[in-house]
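Anyone? Bumping this.
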Amino acid sequence: MARITAGVATSHVPAIGAAIDLGKTQEPYWAPLFAGYEKSRAWQKDARPDVVILVFNDHATSLMLEVVPTFAIGCAERYRPADEGWGARPVPMVQGHPELAAHIAESLIIDEFDMTILNDMDVDHGMTVPLSLLFGEVGQWPTRVIPVLVNVTQFPPPSGDRCWRLGEAIARAVASFPEDLNVQVWGTGGMSHQLQGKRAGLINKPFDQAFLENLTTDPQALRKLTHYDYLREAGSEGIELIMWLVMRGALGDAVNEVHRFYHVPASNTAVGHVVLERA
Ligand code: DHB
Ligand code: FE
């Protein structure tokens, strides 16, 4: 049977992708950030996932504001890195897993999560930056990927608790897939950041660090956070953290924390990163 073995959470700042692609990772501004991912890259070499269910948000790249699905799942064979205005990143094509994706879509919809099915899409920094951070510069990504998209760009996003329950439903779907597959679930985005308005530049270290601590030790507490809590404490883009709760809901109660990292600044964002294994 397919089984979820681990979860990863990471911010997905586009400037991190640019730093990698322009060879700036050892510059003083960026070196501490990339050092924080070294342990995770070494861990991934042993973890060897067959499939990553990668939860992210499209930033009006593939899905313009004409259509804004609350939850969507990619069922395509492959996904092109998107051109976000300065050309596509020079990273490999992302290989999907259409059979497992179709199985998860069916299971989720029967489980009353009305997923939008995406059979063709380009993937933006929400996906390509986490892949680069966890796998480095490679000729081919060492895993297949199933994109799961959550709307956090146009109000109203789903609640964090709903995201948690989506994660639980994804775990049920994976557990009923007959093929023997090592599956990870990743949640991307966050931590505190606000890219516009009067509070642009907002960073809230105490909130972020409590969120990181609770993710491992008291994740149920995070389910209670509302849109307004995220907006007030973590800024307008801090709402991306609800995608971490899809990952955490999918892992179940007992986890071992393999790695935790927090770093400010990276562009306008506080970068957080966690690796959790199922106990
Ligand atoms: C930044 C962060 C994001 O999460 C994003 O989607 C776009 C920009 C930033 O910090 O610049
Ligand atoms: Fe983002």
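Late reply, but here is one note on the structure posted above: The longest strand covers residues 255-266.
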